[in-house]
Amino acid sequence: MAWLYLIVGGFLEIAWAFGLQESHGFTRVVPSVLTVAALIASFALFARAMRVIEIGTAYAIFTGIGTAGTAIVGILFLGEPAEVGKLVFITILLCGIIGLKVISGEKKPAVQQAGDSGSVSAGLTTNGGAVSSERQEVQ
Fold it and tell me: Localized where (predicted)?
């Protein structure tokens, strides 16, 4: 599910980038509201995906989808030139995104902070079949 969040978040990045232009510097109300909504949803999905996907991979894919997609939208809908060099580099970028997806694993469980008590939860460990919770004090 994290990959779906990341991909949808990337497509929403394309939407808010396009919306920035259509809002004319946030002077047009409807495009401005839609742009801000897409931006918030995009980052919320990106943040949710990073619970599972490593940050380096997640960020590269998220921004890669946004970058390539925005360039393609510019070519298809905004009359930007479809130069050979631009198309080659968009293709390289898309290959990098696909490559990162293929080789990426999931995050290892992270150490979580337990409120403001100054302790850190290091997860559960097994000791000869018995499960115990470990806590470390943080200075």
Answer: Cell membrane
